[in-house]
Amino acid sequence: MVNMIATMRDSDNTVTYLMLFFIKANSNGLSNECISCYRDVARARDEETETLITADLQQCAIDDDRLFAYLVPYVFQRLDVEAGASASVFNVVCSHIDAHQIMQLIGEIVRENVTLFRKDSFAQIVAASLDWPTTTQWAFWHLVHAEGIPGEWLIQLLPKLKSSQHAEAAANLLLMLKRADRDPNMNMLRALFSRTPSAEDTFTIDCIKILIEDPSTCKRVSDNVGNLLKKQMAAGDLHMGGGTKGASKKGPQKLSMEQVLAHLEQFTQLCLMKGKKSAEQIFSNATVLEAFSEAEKNDKVAPLRSKFAQLFAVVNILRAESGDKEQSSRTLRGNRGSSASTSMSKANRHKDEDKD
Length: 356
Description:
This protein is mainly alpha-helical.
């Protein structure tokens, strides 16, 4: 039977998607043996199951869009290993799905009937989606948001993303960070700082600004930035493209202090003096100030101090302002204490006079 269906498909490419329909309709989609027959047909045709799924959904979408919408959730339920890891399957689905069908599929996701994405393949699928048409990417990112994918799944993609070329993905990643519980761990910050600094590309700056909007995450981001700078100075990872002797030229370059400072300088240019004052909090952080103090004393960092003189000047200004505020606070507390003592002394004198 399997070989007959595989042969029939050569002359009629509707056979295998109709096979999926009958499996779902007649067994309510619960029989593993039935769905394994579909995999067997792919094997008999000497092709990958995901290749057959892609071709079937493509043809079904052309022939009958309602049947297409009926089969898509079932494919991700029963052929989840193949479909959930296939960029070509997602491309076909997102190319042909309409707004009503997206709503229906999101409903299936919300009701926990369908899981579309897998952590081990998600970044590769997003990388493939960067070349899709805008409308296809629009549908794709609706499904990503519906599943509530965490930003950590995309850490490895962040250094390669170019916001000018990949505007849809960059915009949606910012929305993911904006809506999700933010976990500004060191891996995420390293990935963001690893992006090539550019005046035309503010993606890294925008991500950091989102991460520091909450006061609790602002401190974690600041501490991580300060610790990162300290580690780079200690390891001698100061200049972009410097690397280490004997290292493979084809291997990934270490994140350098120069690259981090370039992003931080752009951050100060774009984000300081805004209403929330969250950007100033980074450079008032004790760990960050310690890192910049070490940099000012380190002779090897002298070329970077010269290159990023504006950044170092801003940090010194904010350090002075922070010190003035602390001094003012101490003076105010001292004055309050002195006033309280004076008041108590006067009260005691009045009591003594009353006794007399």
